[in-house]
## 1
Amino acid sequence: MGSIDTLHLGAAFAAAFLAGAINSVAGGGTLISFPTLLWLGLPPIVANATSTVAIWPGNVGSIWGFRRELKRAEPRMRLACIPGAIGGLIGAILLRMTPGKLFEHLVPFLILFAVVLFTVQAPIQRRLRLVHAHRSRGWLVIGFLLLLLVGIYGGYFGAGATIMLLSILAILGMTDILEMNAVTSLISLCINGVASILFIVAKLVYWPYVLVMAVGALAGGYGAAGVARRIGRTMVRRFVIVVGFSIAIVMFVRMARG
């Protein structure tokens, strides 16, 4: 891309600000930041990589916020970041190998998949409270393999990965939602961190947007969270769902016309 104007930078900052605020309350901020970068003219793979790198500082903030809960979590649960990081690397490599045209056709399906996951997050969590947790070594191995797969998805695209991580941790025996959020934040930090390094090395990142979006995401997470909480978690979730489905429909229509 060539030079960008202040309006485009402002739009990128606003999208990241909103994404940071949404992530602090309900999750799903990527469903705002990624499509915005597409609208701003970035190629799909570059938009995906740029969004991952730009929103990554929010994971650091989450880890700091959940530092006490992370210390309380079982050590073996903290080890879950290892398969997550390996998966994140594999997913990022797969994205790097994916032809741009193919990924462009995959984008509507990936967004739709992420929105559906986000939509069913609450009922899934309610059902998981009734699931008998398994803490044996065999189930731990299965859980870590599932975490590897989620890491691959997270490194490749990422939106909606949080609900998958929470589901796996619940099945593995974690019951404290704050500890689960802490471990999920750690795994996400590793997945996105490893993927970000590869994206940067592969020169897939558009830095002018990354810099303003990183500031926006941090500001949104800290400054707008209070406003979002006053609006209510339910209203924020509904907003993300409506926007996500609308974007998916627009993407499918554009693909059909193209």
Note: Residues 6-257 form one domain.
## 2
Amino acid sequence: MSVTPETSTQRSWLDRFFKISERGSTVGTEVRGGVVSFVAMAYIVILNPLIIGGFSADQASVDVLGGWLPNSQVAAVTALTAGVMTVLFGFVANLPFGLAAGLGVNSFLAVSVVQDVTWAEAMGLVVINGIIITILSLTGLRTMIFESIPQQLKTAITVGIGLFIAFIGFVDSGFVRASGQNSPPVQLGDGGSVTTWPVVIFFITLLIMAVLMAKKVKGALLIGLVFSTIVAAIVESVLHLGSSVTNPSGWSLNVPQLSGALFSLPDLSLVGQFNFGAFERIGWLSATMLIFTLFFTSFFDAMGTMTGLAKGAGLADEDGNFPRLKSAMVMEGVAVAAGGATSGSANTVFVDAAAGVGEGARTGFAAVITGGLFLLAMFFTPLTQVVPLEVAAAALVAVGSLMVAQIKDIDWSELSASVPVFLTITVMPLTYSIANGIGVGFISWVIIRSLAGKWREISPLLWIVAAGFLIYFARGPIESLIG
């Protein structure tokens, strides 16, 4: 009898360990997917320092005592934590997800938390949040909550995330902007028209990717990213657009050019700079409310993102569950704590990794590639700034279109289910939060389904989680009551 290529003895240890062939992928596909995920996520190395760090006390988010986090140090620990945790996630969970500093949590820390505590104390709260999530994951409670979510809502979460990341892409590219007026709140480009070269580059990139995907060209997203980055660099060298900080028609974050030294040693001084003094500074009740807010944002944001990515990769079963679910949730909790311990903010599964999934990544080997590139990025920070955000944003829109396609699996005939599903899908992009969409979906599901006489079909855990979301959404008045 002849031996087929699928025979385990013929497969490499890499293939066997990550189950690459079993999941219908190849080593080359995983490498491409890992590279594309990194390219789509790399902006966090530049953006995270802009949110929680600064170049001086006058240009930073200062804490209650006037302390601040140096930009270069934040960039270094952002790349370090993303790299280490993504590599570990790939080996332990064997899923093609990238992890990095979550934009929801870091913004919350910079805008709200450090008004009352120091940065070290704020990061201590993040560590506690990660420990709680890890414990819930280890005990299986987090998995039980995940499994209690109806399939209709799981599909809605995937579709909502597709719209969400597409909206992120449109906003990051400048194709959609805030109008500065009450009606309409957003507009196309500048005053309803496209007037800048970066937006044109975004649109060209999106068209290239769409055509290559339609022709089923392998590496469509990667080809689009590389080609458009070269085009962007040529445009910049001719027109000298610069940053949008100095030129309204410039690039929104990364200017596609190389300047200065390509190599530098990372400054990791922020590693370990956290403490638990927030409980003494603001009291146990106030500190607990901050942890509660961090917990709900991290817990359900990551759960929703993993649901969407797993379905996009074709790894989820008919109930929305996917391989090594518990391991993935444990590692994500560890990443949250690790982000606090390194002062880079909570690390979580990054929705932008959908770009790698769209490229065909199906295993943890892609995550190992992504993580390895983040570790290299610590030493080659200028290279992470070559790809303009407008180009990376096009990949998000392209992948978003693939995820939204799963809307066909939703049964819209029963209103007691379709209304919560609709709210889940729409609230995510409209409020710029995966957790908000999930929360509104859970609350509306238990209320509408119960009043429609279907309360027996609702898991008790879903009731508990919905009640928790009610507290989460009412945290403002609650914090005011407790002072």
Note: The chain has one domain: 17-262+278-482.
